[in-house]
Write a structure and sequence with these properties.
By secondary structure, the chain is mainly beta. Helix content is 0%, strand content 51%. The relative contact order is 0.26. This is CPXCG motif-containing cysteine-rich protein.
Amino acid sequence: MHEEQLDRHPVRCPYCDAPFELLVDRSEGSQETWEDCPRCCAPIQLRIEVSADGELESVTLGRDDDVL
């Protein structure tokens, strides 16, 4: 993990609408992963898009039954 490629990205839980900061590691490139909500513990799907030059393009959150 490279400290200079870590971004704090403000998001809201798609279940309970709680705001929290997601720590995104751009050095991993584009990815799909899961994160539990820090408030309600529900499983959140994440789609993280990183450009070829390493810039964060988008972060999409969804419920566990959503198709991202």
